[in-house]
Amino acid sequence: MTSLSPLALTHLAIIYVVWGSTYLAIRFAVAVWPPFLTGVVRFLSAGTLMLLTAKAFGHSLRLDRRALATSFLSGLLLFPVGNGAVLWAEQTTSSGLVATLTATVPIWMTLFAWLMGTHARPSLRVFVALALGLSGVALLVANGGAAVSAANAFILLVGAATWAFASVWVAKRRPAGSLLVRVAYQMLAGGAGFVLLALLHGDGARVGPALLAPKPLLAILYLAVFGSCIGYFSFSWLVAHVPPHIVGTYAFVNPVIAVILGAFFGEAVTAQGVLAIGLVVTGVVLAALPERRAELVQEPLAE
Known about the structure:
By secondary structure, this protein is an all-alpha fold. The protein has one domain (6-288). Helices cover 74% and strands 0% of the residues. The protein contains twelve helices and no strands. α4 runs antiparallel to α6. The chain is globular.
């Protein structure tokens, strides 16, 4: 049976709220900054900050070859591909629609965990919960009345699947060493990957005084500290300790947080929006209920 400890609930609350707010911050950032240059600054600064934090807490910064390779490869998949898809799409697509399409993450995570043998085949109740969550997210999209191009939809779906695959793969590998240090190296690898994307996309040509405006700078700072350092650390802990269908419920809650934040910026919340929030919350609760049948045991990652 699956039971959630107070620590697990705390980490879930962090990725629910913090990552729900990052879509708005990304919109503020890419409105001024080139998308991949945003990724460079965000993840290189976040990785450096996490390494300094690990050093301050007495963690060894050395990893064995297996753990270092796992961190490097997963960092390239998670950030330049997974998060890069979000940065690219939010240039022309609303944050609500982007959050909606990334809500496919729990479906991919559950599928990959089953295929990799870390968890048993998902129960019918889990798929019902996922369907409820996606139905609520779909209502949020209809409420927004926006549209997304086929290209952006494809990019976001590929990004979501890549993020899910990398997350489950890291948990299966169970690399040794400090979680804080491994996450730091993931982010540094991701930042290096964004450097290549920025060069290929010609982001350097858009560098100028406008990038120093307070609003995008504060948005990138928020993304680095809260979205990456705090939010991703919580996500990494959850992937190692909690079944993937529960971890993935953040993708259902994030659009709800976006609606609430939008209300503070003068966006109306309609009856349709309230119904969507109700469906999302119901799906989250249903997915988080203990399973009656046994699941394959997964050992926690070394920390």
